[in-house]
Amino acid sequence: MNKVPLTVNGAEKLRNELQKLKQTDRPRVIEAIAEAREHGDLKENAEYHAAREQQGFIEARIKDLEAKLSNAQIIDITKIDGGGKVIFGATVELEDIDNGETVTYQLVGEDEADIKQGRISITSPIARALIGKEEGVSVTVQVPSGSREFEIVEVRYQ
After folding, report:
1. Range 4-75 classified under CATH 1.10.287.180
2. Residue 127 burial (CB count, 10 A)
């Protein structure tokens, strides 16, 4: 399996989720299954079936997180000299040439992407258009509604 890029913060969040699943959620659902078993006939026991289903989801997520972390290439952007270029982990401030609006994005791994928090996947069209560019450069990005042109206002490595 290929290495998956993750920022230090992204890897920490995945580790925290994995720890919560293993130390809190898994024991809670095991207890719920044991309690549901005490109620008798398992064929018609909705609580038992719901707890088993939840256990399946938890175990699948644990395996998924363990695989992602074992294949992660954790990149500490604060220790990299990007030379003013847009690279993985960089925070980029863009100005929309058409309407003058500014947006700020951090380029992160797919598992960390959250547009509401300004983190976009390195594989997204905007990120692919930005990689390797410098401040002051204009880029055209193909988006579902057509194409948009942005100017790179600032590149930060934080």
Report:
1. yes
2. 21
Instruction: Name the residue among 9, 1, 2, 14 with its Cα closest to residue 69.
Output: 14
What are 130-134's contacts with CB under 8 Å, separation 24+? Answer: 130/86, 130/92, 130/94, 131/86, 131/87, 131/88, 131/107, 132/85, 132/86, 132/87, 133/85, 133/86, 134/84, 134/85, 134/86
CATH number 3.40.50.300 given to 77-156: no
Of 12-16, 94-98, 118-122, 142-146, where does mean pLDDT reach its minimum? 142-146
Query: Rounded mean pLDDT of 48-70?
Result: 93
Angle, nearest 10°, between helix axes 46-70 and 8-20?
Answer: 150
| CATH 3.10.50.30-classified regions of the chain | 77-156
- The answer to whether 111 and 10 have CB atoms below 8 angstroms apart is yes
* Amino acid making up residue 95: E
pLDDT tens column, 77-106: 888 888 889 999 999 999 988 888 999 999
Asked if 65 and 6 count as a contact pair (C-beta separation under 8 A), the reply is no
**% helix / strand / coil in the chain, to the nearest 5?**
40, 30, 30
